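DM from R.C. (forwarded with permission)

"hey, sorry to bug you on a friday — could you get me a structure for this? deadline for the figure draft is monday and I only need the backbone to look sensible"
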Amino acid sequence: MMETLTLYISGMVCGGCASTIEKALLALDGVAEAEVSHVEGRAEVSYDPAKVQPAAIKAAIEVIGYAVR
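My reply, with the result:
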């Protein structure tokens, strides 16, 4: 069963930032969808908790230089 996680992200300044984060999230095994908005500073992530945990999702964002609040 899929779950949805909402994350608030600091450091995005343009659509390219949001796209970079989406690609990083979608590369994770277990993430089905990722919708990132630099305007809202937010990411909505649909994931399979049997395959990936919220901590790993947050880490994937932080490792590319953005802060998860």
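R.C.: lifesaver. The longest helix spans residues 15-26.
me: no worries. The domain at 3-68 is CATH 3.30.70.100 (Alpha-Beta Plaits).
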